[in-house]
Amino acid sequence: MKSPRRYGSPDATRLQARDIYDGLLLVDKPAGPTSHDIVAHIRRQFQFDKVGHGGTLDPQATGLLVILIGRGTKLSSTVMNSDKVYEGYLRLGITTDSQDASGAVLSERDPSAVTREALEGEISKYSGDIMQTPPMVSAIKMQGRALYKLARKGKTVEREPRLIHIYEFTLIEFDPPRASFRLNCSKGTYVRTICNDIGETLGCGAVLDELRRTRAGNWSIQDALTLPAIEAMDKAQLLEHIIPVHKVTKANDPGA
Known about the structure:
Distance between the termini: 44 Å
Number of helices: 9
Radius of gyration: 21 Å
Order of helices and strands: HEHEEHEEEHEEEHEEHEEEHHEH
Strand content: 25-35%
Oligomer: single chain
Largest sheet: 11 strands, mixed
């Protein structure tokens, strides 16, 4: 018969040491690496068993990436379902296969006839509940296969429109052919698709030129660590920046 586990045993000590790292880490993702690259880097550097993220950012996008550590991975749906805020730039006069500046160019048209008033008029139409068709270059799966893998083979399949919600969409600066904007939206919103659709309506095409996530739910980019800052830390220093699981669940409890 096995003796009961005591708090002083090696197993209990390891469990306690592991539990203190369970939670969320806010990272300011740079342009270039994928969200999965950041996850793998943190797992490897700090030798965590479980690491995930709470919502993908495209490789060229920057900003708030919520990293989930240990039992924090169980909060994935809580973080992913949260509303997001973005700041970015769209570029008029071009379309690409990915709907952003990183894709292969499909067409180029003269955008000089587009005025600020015309662009603001189109942006103002994106308010409230909207049905959006996801792009082919996306991680959405159909019959078990990611759409972007089909897109790489030149295939296009029918996609079901999805309901999204736009809380705020504001044109900040208009410096043709670029325009900066701020967007507050629900989960699952493809910002590059909005830029593409606006460009088509205006008759000149458009792509998402730059994108930065500044907020996800209750979490802000102002509280995030840059990747170089994380790389310079040891595990004990990182612990000071991890948001414990119990604090996350309490913050998201309406009755708290």
